[in-house]
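STRUCTURE:
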């Protein structure tokens, strides 16, 4: 399948492909809009997406040096009272981890199998000792397990892109996988962030996986993008009725990785701004 020249593989579209090749085909190649909600309560989903975006913005402003008092004021006046609580938890647990040079909301690109890949990082911290940490803020209501995060496309793709492209953020000629870790912080469990170290073996494994996946996508015919056989994957998919996989959406409280579900809309990578950091 020939992809447009400006097509970028991202964690959002590659996760769609891993969940269901047909969903990837409909959403990212045909751009089919389907009038259905990801979850039963569409309004709550929308509000949660907006709250997540506002909270990400508060953290971004804090990292840029806006005084804490002003931001606390904003958090207290937010229409969603949870944000004030998230904010106090953020201030209690995160600032002591932020020793180093900060790259906030940075986009990095790399290439594999002749295709572009891109990742937008909430924060990359470069320590004096030469180590790099990716921080990712999650506002899902459900707690997320480490073994689940290890398998997610976001974890594997972000680590790979930082390994291949992170030198553009630093003075280093190259970056070894062992210099990189990824830390997820959750509003649902603020005292237990999950840190995932990277290593050479994981890098090689992920590189082989993404090359293979990308080659399959670009070489297969359009009718080979099959519907998943795992009907669980259809629960939070807007194409349920299109695919005759039921019309009842899943519940918001059961949605695990909320940011990925809104990733292609509210928190998406702005491809027009990808020239921010190229290499
Ligand atoms: S409803 Fe199911 S089969 Fe259809 S695109 Fe979504 S995940 Fe794939």
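SEQUENCE:
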């Amino acid at each position: 399948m020939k992809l447009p020249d400006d097509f970028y593989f991202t964690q959002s579209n590659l996760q769609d492909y891993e969940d269901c090749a047909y969903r990837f085909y409909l959403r990212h190649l045909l751009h089919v809009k389907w009038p259905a909600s990801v979850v039963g309560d569409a309004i709550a989903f929308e509000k949660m997406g907006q709250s997540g975006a506002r909270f990400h913005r508060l953290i971004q402003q804090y990292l840029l040096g806006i005084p804490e008092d002003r931001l606390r004021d904003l958090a207290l006046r937010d229409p969603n009272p949870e944000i004030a609580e998230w904010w106090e938890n953020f201030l209690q647990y995160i600032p002591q981890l932020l020793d180093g040079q900060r790259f906030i909301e940075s986009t990095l690109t790399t290439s594999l199998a002749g295709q572009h890949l891109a990742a937008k990082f909430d924060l990359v911290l470069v320590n004096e000792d030469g180590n790099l940490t990716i921080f990712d803020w999650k506002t899902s209501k459900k707690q997320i397990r480490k073994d689940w995060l290890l398998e997610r496309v976001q974890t594997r793709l972000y680590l790979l892109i930082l390994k291949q492209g992170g030198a553009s953020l630093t003075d280093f000629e190259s970056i070894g996988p062992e210099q990189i870790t990824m830390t997820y912080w959750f509003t649902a469990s603020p005292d237990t962030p999950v840190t995932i170290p990277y290593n050479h073996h994981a890098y090689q494994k992920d590189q082989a996986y993404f090359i293979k996946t990308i080659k399959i996508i670009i070489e297969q015919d359009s009718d080979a993008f099959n519907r998943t056989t795992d009907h669980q994957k259809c629960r939070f998919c807007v194409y349920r009725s299109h695919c005759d996989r039921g019309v009842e959406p899943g519940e918001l409280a059961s949605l695990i990785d909320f940011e990925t579900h809104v990733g292609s809309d509210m928190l998406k990578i702005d491809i027009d701004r990808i020239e921010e950091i190229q290499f």
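REMARK: Residues 264-268, 271-279 have pLDDT under 50 and may be disordered.
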